[in-house]
Amino acid sequence: MSEALERSLDRLSRVRGVRGSMFVAADDGLVVGQLLMEGVNGKAVAALAASLARKVGGAAAATGAGQLSFVQVEATAGTLLLAPAAGDLLVVALAEPQVNVGLCRLEMMRAAEAVR
Amino acid sequence: MTTTVVELWTEEPLVRYVGQASARLVVIMTPAGQVLAQHGFAKAVDLMGIAALGAAIMASSGALADLVGEATFGALFHAGVRHGIHLAPCRTPRGPLVVLTVFGRETSIGLVEFFFDEFAAALHAAAPAEQARGPVLAENFEAELGSSLAALFGR
User: What are A71's strand-pairing partners?
Assistant: First the structure.
């Protein structure tokens, strides 16, 4: 992984409440680069996040909502955020439920920009 | 799509794996290519061909690993335009097995790999201890193959 991508994951992971961040190949659901806290199953998050992006993206396109730009999934024990990036990649963040989503999103957009 | 098994203990883990990973075709076989269970095949000839090729690929990969001083290379993955294949070994008390999964665009290699780990653990938990097996003789081979095909395709 390039230094710029590593730096962007580092910045994203420094947001309070973020438990892990990664770049995922959208087609394959495989991890391209990751920075995770201990106990986070990166392989599972990557595979399921890519599957989610594909399904939500399909639903957005089918309903005329256009291209997917950001997905936020809130659950009782955590929040999953994902955003598409260039090169068929996804930026994915796994966070505590009370995370500052706005700040996270800003860092995720920066990370997506770093891919260009 | 049908799931048929020669050894009953493989059925429940296989059905779950197929559903979770959205696999199109799955073969559970021994490293020699003897099929224990399958999902998605309609014709015996396709199944036996794929099983034989899968076992041969795993054997070649094992030999290559040996040459470069690796114990094993683990799973192999080939991506095509419409289909991908995932070929991986799996250790069970019944002995080493090989699982070949063919999947389409409705799933991904990441999902297949993720659910394969669970599948391998489930097979390990369900497998009976290995029975003492005699050498595979040419005279037994045809009868064994015939009974496997009969169990898998009801012929």
Answer: A82
pLDDT of B98 higher than 70 = yes
Give the mean model confidence (pLDDT) for residues A56-71.
94
Taking the C-alpha atoms of residue A83 and residue A49, their distance in angstroms, rounded to an integer, is 10
B20 — contact with chain A (CB < 8 Å)? Answer: no
Which chain B residues have a beta carbon less than 8 Å from that of A88?
Answer: none
The residue in chain B having the minimum alpha-carbon distance to the alpha carbon of residue A44 is: B114
Band of residue B133 on the pLDDT scale cut at 50, 70, 90: low
Mean pLDDT of B56-64: 93
Chain B residue numbers with beta carbons less than 8 Å from the beta carbon of A46 are 110
Q: Which domain holds residue B108?
A: 3-130+138-153
How many separate domains does chain B show?
A: 1
Residue to substitute from A51, A55, A82, interface B, most B β-carbons within 10 A: A51
d(CA B146, CA B30): 16
Domains and CATH numbers, chain A: 3-115 (3.30.450.30)
CATH code of the domain containing B122: 3.30.450.30
Res B71: pLDDT: 85
Whole-angstrom distance between the N-terminal and C-terminal Cα of chain A? 14
